[in-house]
């Protein structure tokens, strides 16, 4: 049999092409990780020139994820579907959740084949964590997938995690419809742990230039204001206290060395579907 030509493989799967800046690897580099290549670092450095406190912002985003998963596990939820889970790093969702609820189950989902392969190797280490290679734009495929249904019980509350994901969907991808499908599918008592890059307080030129950096990456970015982000949810969702706010301010832990507020922010919160 003939081996598939490399170019054909790369055309089918941009995640394998190390010349294409990859949003999971850009994020890994900004967090101080080592799973990244030259094109990823070049794109990340260009972003940091535009947004000098971006590294703080992604760390704040990751710290929010840890606090919010911990808080939701404390509330009694022990099933998580983490969509756009990213490359494995410290304090992955199952580690945080199982610290509070040793019986917690986590299904990791990402559309990037390299992320899914890393996750299979590093995260899905036992019978209570799973990995699905899928795109959030086909949310019904994810929610109905036999592997998801085998791990997650849709008769009991579920926490869906969409952290630093939805800004990779354009208006044409209809993120509001995806959130609405979750509203319909999730059992009572479920929550959505959510963050989104936010343009509030940024110059239009800066936002446009950052958008251009992402334009040639594996997932172009759509910048949104806090008002536009809230509009994705509408009236069918309520927010746990303190609402959808800059992630650093969401139930902060006492900080031994207070840091000045960053201009570049992700907003985040825990949304609850309303009847
Ligand atoms: N959620 C993690 C966090 O906040 O630490 C990782 C965030 S990383 C910035 C975004 C992740 O979303 C990447 O791993 C990327 O591959 C994934 N992603 C982007 N678009 C996606 C899509 N349409 N469907 C599923 N995953 C997607």
Automatic annotation (TrEMBL):
One of the protein's GO biological processes: methylation
Lineage: Bacteria, Bacillati, Actinomycetota, Actinomycetes, Streptosporangiales
Record key words, sorted: Methyltransferase, Transferase
Domain of life from the UniProt record: Bacteria
InterPro entries: SAM-dependent_MTases_sf, SAM_dep_MeTrfase_SAV2177_type
A Pfam family: Methyltransf_19
Entries under Gene3D superfamilies matching the protein: Vaccinia Virus protein VP39
Single GO MF annotation: methyltransferase activity
Name of this chain's protein: O-methyltransferase involved in polyketide biosynthesis
């Amino acid at each position: 049999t003939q081996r598939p030509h490399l170019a054909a493989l790369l055309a089918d799967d941009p995640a394998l092409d190390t010349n294409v800046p990859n949003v999971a690897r850009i994020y890994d580099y900004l967090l101080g990780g080592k799973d990244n290549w030259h094109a990823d670092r070049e794109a990340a450095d260009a972003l940091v020139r535009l947004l000098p406190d971006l590294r703080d912002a992604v760390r704040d985003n990751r710290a929010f994820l840890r606090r919010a998963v911990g808080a939701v596990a404390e509330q009694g939820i022990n099933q998580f579907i983490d969509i756009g889970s990213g490359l494995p790093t410290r304090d992955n969702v199952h580690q945080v959740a199982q610290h509070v609820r040793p019986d917690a189950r986590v299904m990791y989902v990402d559309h990037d084949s390299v992320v899914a392969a890393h996750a299979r190797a590093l995260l899905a280490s036992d019978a209570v964590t799973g990995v699905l290679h899928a795109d959030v734009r086909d949310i019904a495929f994810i929610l109905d997938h036999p592997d998801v249904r085998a791990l997650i019980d849709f008769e009991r509350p579920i926490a869906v995690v969409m952290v630093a994901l939805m800004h990779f969907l354009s208006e044409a991808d209809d993120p509001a419809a995806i959130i609405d499908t979750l509203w319909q599918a999730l059992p009572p008592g479920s929550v959505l742990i959510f963050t989104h890059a936010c343009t509030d307080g940024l110059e239009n030129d800066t936002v446009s230039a950052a958008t251009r950096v992402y334009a040639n990456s594996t997932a172009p970015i759509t910048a949104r204001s806090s008002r536009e982000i809230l509009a994705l949810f509408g009236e069918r969702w309520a927010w746990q206290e303190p609402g959808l706010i800059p992630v650093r301010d969401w139930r902060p832990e006492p900080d031994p060395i207070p840091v000045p507020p960053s201009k570049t922010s992700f907003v985040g919160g825990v949304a609850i579907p309303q009847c």
